[in-house]
Structure of alpha-L-rhamnosidase:
Amino acid sequence: MLFIQACSNPNATSKHINNSDVLVPAPTALKVGEGFVNPIGYYEQKPRFSWQISAQSTTQQQTAYQVQVASSSNFSDSTLLWDSQKTLSDQNAWVRYQGKALQSRQKVYWRVRIWDQDQQASAWSEINRIEMGIINNDDWQAQWIGHPAPPERTKDSIIFSSVKGNAFPVPDVEYYRPFYLRTGFQLPKKVKKARLYITAKGVFKPYINGMAISEDAMTPGWTPYHKRIETLAYDVTEFIHTGKNALGVAVAEGWHSGRIFHPTVQQPTLPIRLLAQLEIELEDGTTQVIASDKSWIASNRGPIREASNYDGEYYDANYELPNWSSPNFTAESAAKWQPVLVEPLDPAVALQPKRHKAVSTTTTIAAQNIVSNKNGVVIFDMGQNLVGVPEIKVPAIKGQRIKLRFAEALEGERFAVENLRSAKNTDYYVANATGPITYQPTFTFHGYRYVELSGHDTSATPSTDWITSKVLHSNFNVYDNFNSDHVLLNKLSNNVEWGLRGNFLDIPTDCPQRDERLGWTGDAQVFVQASMYKADVYSFWSAWLQSMREDQGIDGLVPNYVPFRSFLKSLTGAAWGDAATIVPWELYQFTGDIGVLEENYNMMKRWVGYHTYNSYQHISRMGSHGDWLQPFTLNGTNGGDTNRDLIATAYYAHSTHILAKSAKLLGYETDAQYYQKLFEQIREKFRHYFFDQNMDLHALITKPPLFQNGSERKSKAKTFSPVTTQTTYLLPLAFDLFDKEEQLAAVDKLVALIEKSDRHLRTGFLGTPLLAPVLQRFGHSDLMYDLLFQETYPSWFYSIKNGATTMWERWNSYSLQDGFNGEKMNSLNHYAYGAVASWFYRGILGIQPTKPGFKHFIFNPQFNRKLGQVSGSQSTPLGDIAAQWQIQQKNVFIELTVPKNSQANLMLPKVNIEQLLFNGQAIDTKQATLQPGSYEIKGTFKVDLK
Ligand code: RAM
């Protein structure tokens, strides 16, 4: 194999370089932690620093770096807090600060320079900043405040009474009434700087001097509130001025106080509270702190009468509170408000800066079409199943109630809402005058494609500009990074993106529309990899992992959903709780950040301990939801036919293997050896316990006893006849549980099963994501293409042929002909089956990481005659990897960009390379290690493409 050194820019003259005369451009793309740029309200006391080699630079590989952190932007000696000095290393990301831990509100400056392959130093980077949030409870002066009305949940709902026709026969919906809080303050001097630190038990929206200070929604988001509540920090300097000012905050129940799941589930009373601290620095250097305390006043007689995540919002304009958040609020108005109720901070509940971006409007979508307008009821089609809120601009009649309902699909022209179960997803607006109104709900979100409007002024002719939708999700960047010449494949990629958007609303949820919307761990572990290809979601996942650590039981149990609420059932299951090992591991593979393994190692280890506790002689007896929603089950259950002990034991082995590898990377040698041995023992046992010599399942398998001491299961049956499924083979093949020869036999069995089902998948949540990696690894990418390109049930394209604009929960959730399939649990926005999108990048496009963080990757596109052209990119800590390929008869044209500080190997087994050009210059090789730069490859196929 040849080693190609990409030639440096021939125009660059080489000369001696000193610091004032640097040719090597400064590093760029400076980031802190999991991707923050100049953060305000930062969370990490020992931040990690990342940068990239400038794309313009002739530097190919970094050989050393120097990071400096200082309390002043002049970096004078006396202000230096940490200087890494010149450190010989190619690491350009996740370099950990080693100075004194940063404290609440501390502001620091940082910069970096690097040395290239010729030991030349770069210029210093631009100076970036970090401003810490309030990191300790003790650093708050504010107290929790709330409305003095009794904290009980109330049932006197104006709108959500008589829940009829739902899957769950329920009493009237209970809710907390939203309320408004305010205070006024006077400033003698000009403002230099102002920060608002704020959070709620519930959800909040802050206003200063009559203006909303941010676009964030549903803040502070959802964490295990009994242990930790995230706080937000805002730069509000612009909103405050000399003289009279006012701070007002509206609050509602959100996840904290609102119901979780359907209303038959008994839930505790958790009142809504606000915590706010406005810190103002005046020009003369004095400071003023406006903190939530007993001087504030509250009103629950404002326009947002009711608000609930599941049920919607009720806005009555007759209750509007003029000037409530501005200094012009009159004493007369104030007299109708009440003094607030005050509670101290609870030392057991940590207040910590939010460690990922808050939810915000990321896109606005206009209604595409009016589907029907009958008897004063208008149905709008947004053209896309989405998650967010509408903004309506509608003619209203005084005193009349405008009603908005939301549905994911129609059945003919019927507005089908049964799959929302008990979630009412209904917004109301009561007009206080006749004429056009504009309204957007504040404290709710809906999953929908269609909007039904009624109660408006029906003398006006509706038009599509009456409704736009504000798409809400955690405010990260979604990449537009995959394209091909195949319409359905592009649509699938797009649907996966919409599934991601819709279910990344502060936490990763199963679905965004019905009375569930929970952080199901199983769904998350199957989708994490695909999500990292599609969006900048590292901080999103890391934040959720913190909640997972907090929700882990003392016995190591990791719940089925995170955040967990103790009043909910369904504690854990294999493959679900295994998110504890799989999510950190996948994040590490993508980023190369050992920090994520460090942070989660203890949780991973305790989870494996829980597995061990639930196993008998290495066979797991942990229950699970099984290969959830497998199509064509023999047993007719949602859990599918794949044997549960086999699933649980495969995951036990897999998690143990991940743990062993993580221990090794972290330098925990004893653990590494112990868990590697344990992995091998489980693996050995797994093969013989479940499979015979022909690699078929044993006809009868003994059930493992339920208890550690070997005593039996309660059930009389001691054995079971297992059913062989595609997932039966996919799990051990993907998790490396077979020896070489066994592998080949197992692959044959798997392929035969797929052939037998007419080249269709028969897999649920667990098996489906493994199809592509397993089939590619064992040389069956063409079969994967067949599965992927099927248009009949069950397949990905089947949903698209039936109008899908998102990923569905079931392979047959809906059909154009029959509408919803009748199952009560049936969402049209579930990301799990979108896991296949990983293969678009890893397989079809061919970018396979071989070292964490894409420090090295293999370029190994899977050509198939179904596709003539594919292009895409992958964002990495080193920069973007971009690739495209195009097939014309027997020829293939490839373009590949290897980012700085990375390397790649070509693997084009089906292709004779005719020409390999680097920056236009011919390179005479067929297989090569490619250095950073852009390459063009021209080849001819050795074989006829399938
Ligand atoms: C459903 C959820 C989720 C799945 C569990 C087992 O309620 O929607 O997707 O993980 O069941």
The chain has five domains: 5-131, 137-151+160-354, 364-439+451-474, 482-842, 848-941. Residues 510-511, 516, 520, 522-523, 625, 628, 825, 830 surround alpha-L-rhamnopyranose (CB under 6 Å).
